[in-house]
């Protein structure tokens, strides 16, 4: 019979002869990478949570802190609300990180294939377009959590409108027009992603090219894949990425302020048009 003949062949080929183990290992690796990225993101966001809350309070001109600067607000928050006041809204951010990362990761792969197949574009432009579209997709899907986070972070002790994440979801849904209420400020968010991604990508590429051209021995090292190609050293790569991100964030910052004010709805009732009129002194 055929079965007794196949069994010895399979046994001789060893445990790696079957196909299932490879996908299983691949899936496990993806899960490990996703979990590691999510945990790292949670740690990073928790570390900068105090500065992030101060930014929200000052962007939207909270009446208790609008007359203060960054340093003064960092001192005033623990005095008024305790040190845990720095972490208001951080829970919603922690919940948002994992679905945001998963959606962005999967969407990037799909958009990359689609762009290459339909438009025939590859290289840096290909990755930039796919990355921007994946980022927009992830933002749209997880935007309600960002909305809730901002509402919770804007609250000051003794003036709580929302008691927690679930209560904030219920209140916004019932009092602000259902699902559309969760998407206040989405347009400036999406519009702001284009200059942010563009300037970040351009600045990083420029710094990398200039650095490797003028100081290859100091800033560069051979690539693992191709020793003939120079890449930036790890610390230089981080430095260039930080500078590029700071420049891109500065350029797109007015739209970020618009988004925050619109997300807060009745607290600071601005539309994109009204805020930009004020920002450009067109009143």
UniProtKB/TrEMBL annotation:
Question: What family is this?
Answer: Belongs to the mitochondrial carrier (TC 2.A.29) family.
Sorted alphabetically, which InterPro entries does this protein's record hold? GDC-like, MCP, MCP_dom_sf, MCP_transmembrane
| Chief location | mitochondrion
Q: Where are the Solcar repeats?
A: 28-114, 122-210
- Domain of life, per lineage: Eukaryota
Coiled-coil parts of chain: none
This entry carries the following GO cellular component terms, namely:
mitochondrial inner membrane
> What's in the keyword line of the UniProt record?
Membrane, Mitochondrion, Mitochondrion inner membrane, Repeat, Transmembrane, Transport
Source gene?
SLC25A16
Q: Where in the cell is it found?
A: Mitochondrion inner membrane
Q: What Gene Ontology terms for biological process does this UniProt record contain?
A: transmembrane transport
The record's annotation in Pfam families points to: Mito_carr
Membrane-protein topology: Multi-pass membrane protein
> What protein is this chain from?
Solute carrier family 25 member 16
